[in-house]
Amino acid sequence: MRIERQAQDTLTAIEMDLGDELHFTLASGAVRRLKLIHAGAAVTETTVETPKVEKAGAVTNYRFSARFEIDGAVYNLVRYVSSAKSFYEPWHIMGMHIWLDAVDKIFDFLTETHGECKPKKQCRLAIQDATLRICPVLLHPWCPLPPDRLRVEDAYNGEDVWMGAYHGASAHGGLDINHPSGTPIWTPFAIDDHELFNSLAKGDNNNRWRGTHRWSNGAEWVIQVHHLSRLYVPEHKPIEAGTLLADGGGVWVGSHEHSHFVFRVRDGGGEVLLDPWILFWQMYRDRTITSTA
Ligand SMILES: [Zn+2]
C-alpha cells in the first residue's frame, strides 16, 4: 500500500505493514520514499519460565527492529527494551527524524494485558521533518525532569518503560516515572478538555486523568496521567500550558510511588499510540533551548 503524508508542524504518527511504502514530503518539498521490508523482535534475556506468564520479580529484555528501504538505501533500525536505550534519540536520516516505536512481533512473547500498546499493523513509527519540532510550541515539563535524562531504573521496577515487560510478560502500555507522592504534574501544552476517566470517587481503584488538545492543523493529541492523588483544575475546563494540574504518584502505586504517562495521536482519521518518551525528549531539548537563549 502506498501512504502519502506531508510534514506538518506536529509529528506524523503512522502504522505500516511489510511492503507498504510511505511517501513523506519534507518542508522543502522533497519527497522521501520509505518502504518497510522487515520487522522483527527477539528476547535477549529472560527469567520467566513460560513466555507471556507473569512472574513477580521476573525480567524480560528484548530487542526489536525494522528495516526500511529509504530512497533506495537500506536502513536497519534497532531498539532495546527495557534499558537505558529505551530513552533513545530518533534516527536522523535524509532530513527526517524517525522514532521506531513498535513492531507487532513483540507480541509473540509479550501479552497486551497491562495497558493498550500493540500496534494495529506490523510496525509503528513517528516521523518529523528534522528541521521541525514535534509540535509548534515549546513543551513545559510534564513533571520535574530528572537531571539530563530519564533513567530506566526509575521506571517502576526498572521495567515499565513504554512496552517494557511488566513481570517479564506483559507489555507496559505507558511510561512510569518513579517520584514521591505529591510530585507536581503540569500541563506540557494547552489542554482543551480533560477529565478523570477513572476515579476513587466513582469507585475505581485509581485516579486516571486524560486531556486532549487539537492543534491548528487538525491533529489531536491525547495525554494521560495515572495514580494522581489530587487534581487541581476542575474537569472539562480548558487549561493553559504549564499549569499545575495535579499531584502525582500517590494512588494505587504498588511497590514504588510513581506516575504513569500515556500519549496518543489522532491524525487523519486514525488513532496511534506512541511512547510518551517522545514528548519528554522534546521537553529536554526545549529546556536546553530556553536555558541557553
Ligand atoms: Zn504504569
Task: Describe the structure using short key phrases.
293 residues; Glucose Permease (Domain IIA); six-stranded antiparallel beta sheet; five-stranded mixed beta sheet; 5% helix; binds zinc ion
Query: What pattern of helices and strands is seen along the backbone?
Result: EEEEEEEEEEEEEEEEEEEEEH
Sheet with the most strands, sense and barrel status: 6 strands, antiparallel
Please identify which CATH superfamily of the largest domain we are dealing with.
Glucose Permease (Domain IIA)
Number of domains in the coordinates?
2
Unreliable segments of 5+ consecutive residues: none
Q: What is the rounded distance between the termini?
A: 44 Å
Just name the CATH architecture of the largest domain: Distorted Sandwich
The chain-level structural class is mainly beta
The overall pLDDT average reads 96
Instruction: Count every helix, treating DSSP H or I runs of 4 or more residues as helices.
Output: 1
3D shape = globular
Rg calc: 19 Å
Strand fraction band?
Answer: 35-45%
Q: Give a count of the beta strands, DSSP E runs of length 2 or more.
A: 21
What would CATH call the class of the largest domain?
Mainly Beta
